[in-house]
């Protein structure tokens, strides 16, 4: 499949994290510190180089995630083994929630298996290594990336680059709260591929991907799959839908 074909369409496996043939080489993954789509390598290297000139050390904390990885995150949260956070990123008591209420709470911060943009290799969670204190465990919470936070200056620089269309195709899909995924300033997406792939991730594609999955609260998810796609997949920065 050539570059033009990859922009026009993705296989179900690539869309849902059940294939990896679209990812970069092992050597590129070592260079970047994460696996990403093969077409994302060059623009991210360019963005990182310009960040370095501005005094930032732009690094990837999380790149590609497989379906199974996302499933383990989901089951850990649905089963009470991982914390579920409220909209202010505070631990939530899930004891009295219905299955659907719990699914909605998880979806606020964690994608449904098969529906994560990280499956595509087009999306990355980033941080500034130059501003990270020694021994600090990055949490990916708003306080780290807001003005005054340790990564706030780098994200202000990224805001300027994105607004000026000088971010080599990267944008923020979750730039503000639209009632779906909580705002995530650390999450960047590469528009030349991700915009088209967003449209391809339909409820029927997700239903097929989830068919054989051993997933907690699965019935509630399948009963509301159309709403999940509308609120948590399609409902992103409108300039890139």
Task: Describe the protein in words.
It contains twelve helices and four strands, in the order ααααβααβααββαααα. With 241 residues, the chain is an alpha+beta fold. The protein has a single domain, classed as Muramoyl-pentapeptide Carboxypeptidase, domain 2 (2-Layer Sandwich). A four-stranded antiparallel beta sheet has the order 1-2-4-3.
Concise structural overview:
The chain has twelve helices and four strands, in the order ααααβααβααββαααα. The chain is of the alpha+beta class. It has one domain (3-240): Muramoyl-pentapeptide Carboxypeptidase, domain 2.
Which features characterize this protein?
four-stranded antiparallel sheet; globular; Muramoyl-pentapeptide Carboxypeptidase, domain 2; 241 residues; alpha+beta
Please summarize the sheet with the most strands.
Answer: 4 strands, antiparallel
Whole-number average pLDDT?
Answer: 95
Query: Stretches where pLDDT falls below 50 for ≥5 residues?
Result: none
Count of helix runs: 12
Secondary-structure arrangement, i.e. CATH architecture: 2-Layer Sandwich
> Judging from the principal axes of the Cα atoms, what is the shape?
globular
Number of strands: 4
Helix content: 40-55%
CATH class: Alpha Beta
Q: Which value, in Å, is the CA radius of gyration?
A: 17 Å
The helix-strand sequence is HHHHEHHEHHEEHHHH
Spatial strand arrangement across the major sheet: 1-2-4-3
Strand fraction equals 5-15%
CATH topology: Muramoyl-pentapeptide Carboxypeptidase, domain 2
């Amino acid at each position: 499949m050539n570059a033009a074909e990859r922009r026009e369409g993705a296989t179900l496996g690539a869309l849902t994290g059940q294939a990896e043939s679209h990812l970069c080489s092992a050597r590129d993954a070592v260079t970047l510190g994460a696996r990403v789509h093969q077409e994302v390598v060059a623009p991210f290297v360019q963005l990182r180089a310009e960040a370095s000139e501005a005094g930032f050390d732009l690094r990837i904390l999380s790149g590609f995630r497989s379906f199974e990885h996302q499933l383990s995150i989901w089951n850990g949260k649905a089963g009470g083994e991982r914390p579920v956070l409220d909209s202010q990123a505070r631990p939530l008591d899930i004891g009295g929630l219905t299955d659907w209420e719990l699914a909605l709470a998880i979806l606020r911060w964690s994608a449904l298996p098969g529906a994560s943009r990280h499956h595509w290799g087009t999306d990355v969670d980033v941080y500034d290594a130059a501003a990270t204190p020694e021994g600090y465990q990055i949490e990916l919470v708003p306080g780290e990336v807001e003005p005054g936070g340790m990564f706030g200056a780098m994200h202000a620089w990224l805001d300027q680059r994105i607004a000026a269309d000088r971010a080599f195709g990267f944008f923020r899909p979750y730039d503000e709260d639209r009632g779906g995924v909580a705002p995530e300033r650390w999450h960047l997406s590469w528009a030349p591929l991700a915009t088209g792939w967003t449209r391809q991730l339909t409820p029927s594609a997700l239903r097929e991907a989830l068919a054989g999955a051993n997933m907690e609260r699965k019935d509630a998810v399948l009963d509301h799959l159309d709403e999940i796609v509308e609120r948590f997949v399609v409902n992103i920065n409108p300039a890139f839908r």
